[in-house]
Amino acid sequence: MNDETKTPLTQPVDDDVRKLARHLSRSARFGALSVLRPEDGFPSVSRVLSATDFIGRPVLLISGLSLHSRALAADTRCSLLLGEPAKGDPLAHPRLSICANARLVEPQSNDRQELRTRFLARHPKAELYVDFPDFRFVVLEPVEASLNGGFARAYDLKADDLVDDRLAELEMAAIRAVDHMNTDHSDAVDRIASNNGEGQTGWRIATADRWGFEIARSDRLIRIEFRSDPAAGGGYRQAFVELVSS
């Protein structure tokens, strides 16, 4: 069989595929981080807690005593596998593998506090050790990604399919909107959760971005996408109101 008659192994990437990739990366609470051991170059995989920054880059919190910390100091190349299997065949559930370069966030960095706030909103128990001197935040700068959405649903993604920095200035508006919803409209947050099939109360918004947000309750984290773009005239207020009244 010549190259012209081969069946493509991956499918075209469209907005639905990007939405699934966002869901996998934004809703993940943990992942498998693969690094190269500095002493011999062998791959090594560790489970890590995961968050994302406003524009979609994965954010990790790692100890300087760990092997993956030493490995990333020697070689920033890594990959992160995200996707939590449910019932049945684990391979039938979507997963996302991101190839990236790791950037260590220094303690005095201007963006450390923002990353700390977003990370703890998803992992409140990490407050016990987040400020230990040997712990550092690491931002993964995606290079490319592979998305497997199930049987015959494989996609090759580029970095800009995962990271959207066109309207990074929306971040402060998102922070204000999340604080307002959690402080003054906790009943509306519960209503949004109910509209998405969750019967319990006591939900809060963890983190938000241009395309959606995550609600958290205990160890559960659920991704919800906006119906309208907060960058449009109605801003975050309209985007949240639409979800409350649905």
Helical stretch tally: 7
- The dominant shape is globular
Largest sheet: 6 strands, antiparallel, barrel
Uncertain parts: none
**Topology pattern, helix = H, strand = E:** HEEEHEEHEEHHHEEEH
Task: Please state the CA-atom Rg, rounded to the nearest Å.
Answer: 19 Å
Instruction: Kindly state the percentage of residues in helix.
Output: 25-40%
The chain-level mean pLDDT equals 92
Structural class: alpha+beta
Please give the order of strands in the largest beta sheet.
Answer: 1-2-3-6-5-4
Tally of DSSP β-strands: 10
Strand content: 25-35%
What is the rounded distance between the termini?
Answer: 53 Å
Describe, in short, the structure shown.
This protein has 246 residues and is of the alpha+beta class.
Jot down its keywords.
six-stranded antiparallel beta barrel; alpha+beta; three-stranded antiparallel beta sheet; 246 residues
Q: Can you offer a commentary on this structure?
A:
By secondary structure, the protein is an alpha+beta fold. It is 28% helix and 31% strand. The chain has 7 helices and 10 strands. Strand 2 and strand 3 form a beta hairpin.
What is the strand and helix layout of this fold?
Blueprint: H1 15-27, E1 30-36, E2 43-52, E3 58-63, H2 67-74, E4 77-82, E5 95-105, H3 112-122, E6 135-148, E7 154-158, H4 159-162, H5 171-184, H6 186-195, E8 204-208, E9 212-217, E10 220-225, H7 235-244
Antiparallel strand pairs: 1-2, 1-4, 2-3, 3-6, 4-5, 5-6, 6-7, 8-9, 9-10
